[in-house]
Amino acid sequence: MKRKHKRLTFVIVALALLGAAVGLVLFAFTDNIVFFHSPTEVNEDAFRTDRRFRLGGLVEEGSVVKEQGTVKVSFRITDLAESVPVTYVGILPDLFREGQGVVAEGRLENGIFVAEEVLAKHDENYMPPEVAESLKASGKWDEMSETMKKQGHVTKGATQ
After folding, report:
1. What is the pLDDT of residue 100?
2. Which one of 66, 67, 85, 111 is most buried, counting C-beta atoms within 10 A?
3. Based on the domain organization, do 71 and 26 belong to the same domain?
């Protein structure tokens, strides 16, 4: 075999191995990738419920119910157009309250989002960018930003 053919064979084999390695890494990531969705997206008929995902929005006013003697909490997450019922077993973040931005990670089971983790905003003036984008997509961003301005809040994390 000529020297050029040996080099060409080596390059082809190396590229094939590199391609296989990249394919395996991407396949491994598919189980660990967690997507963000709004309540409106979750309530659509075509939404897949077999995957873990993040649900973001605002904690609906008057929806928080804590079970007596346990750490189980039920509440609703809304994007001001739609809402999704959520259950969570565990201690909620100190900054968790009604009307504030929240992101929960978990699965949808029988129409109820079962959260494994709940993340609250980090200060009173911040709204997660994903939540702000979800509100903008629902057409409710202008209402929300006016309400926040009246209350003296600034949306630092959100782009306007």
Report:
1. 86
2. 85
3. no
Among residues 69, 145, 70, the alpha carbon closest in space to that of 101 is found at: 145
CA nearest neighbour of 54 among 119, 132, 137: 119
Tokens of 64: 């928080």
- 132 in the same domain as 63: yes
- Please indicate, yes or no, whether the overall pTM of this predicted structure exceeds 0.70: no
Same-domain check for residues 109 and 130:
yes
Q: Is 24 helix (H, G, I), strand (E, B) or coil?
A: helix
DSSP category for residue 123: S
The answer to whether residue 157 is domain-embedded is no
CATH code at 110? 2.40.50.140
The pLDDT-based confidence of 153 (bands split at 50, 70, 90) is very low
- Report whether 87 contacts 111 (CB < 8 A): no
Residue range of the domain that includes 119: 35-150
